[in-house]
Structures are given as structure tokens and as C-alpha cells.
Amino acid sequence: MEKVIRVEGMTCGHCKMSVEGALKKLDGVASAVVSLEDKNVTVVFDENKVSFEQMKEAIEDQGYDVVA
User: Fold this and answer.
1) 3-state secondary structure of 32
2) Which of 28, 32, 38, 57 lies 20 to 30 A from 46 at CA?
3) Digits of tens for pLDDT over the chain (68 positions)?
4) What is the spatial distance between Cα 45 and Cα 25, in angstroms, rounded to a whole number?
5) Is the distance from CB of 15 to CB of 34 less than 8 angstroms?
6) Where in the cell is it found (predicted)?
């Protein structure tokens, strides 16, 4: 499954790497690609292994805000 998650607070390459890295560490996430321009991250994941709440928590633990 693919989901686009809007994330506030990302401004640079470090932000991009932090968010992508945190998501990729989750079991069930196949890929995570941040678009700083669009202020979002596109995540491809197995919904049977990882939930939106887990992904949201991983992003917020890096210091960014998920916009529902």
C-alpha cells in the first residue's frame, strides 16, 4: 500500500534523511521518499505489519509534525 503523509517542519537534506531513515527502520516499510518541496513523505508499506500510527510516531519522534 502507498500513502502520502503531510509533514510540517522539514526544511533541509538532514530533515529528509531523518524522516526517511526513521520510517525505513519500521518493519513493513518498503520505501519512504520525502519531498521537501511538497512537505510530504510517500511511504510504501505492508498494512498488515505497520500502522499509520506507528509511522506517525516515528516521524514525530524525529521532531516533525504530521498533519492529518
Assistant:
1) strand
2) 38
3) 999 999 999 999 999 999 999 999 999 999 999 999 999 999 999 999 999 999 999 999 999 999 97
4) 12
5) yes
6) Cytoplasm
pTM value is 0.95
Residue numbers of the domain that contains 12: 2-67
CA count, 13 A, side-chain hemisphere, 43: 29
Burial 42-61 (b: 16+ CB within 10 A, else e): ebebeeeebeeebbeebbee
Three-class SS of residue 57?
A: helix
CATH of the domain at 52: 3.30.70.100
* Paired residues of 66 in beta bridges: 7
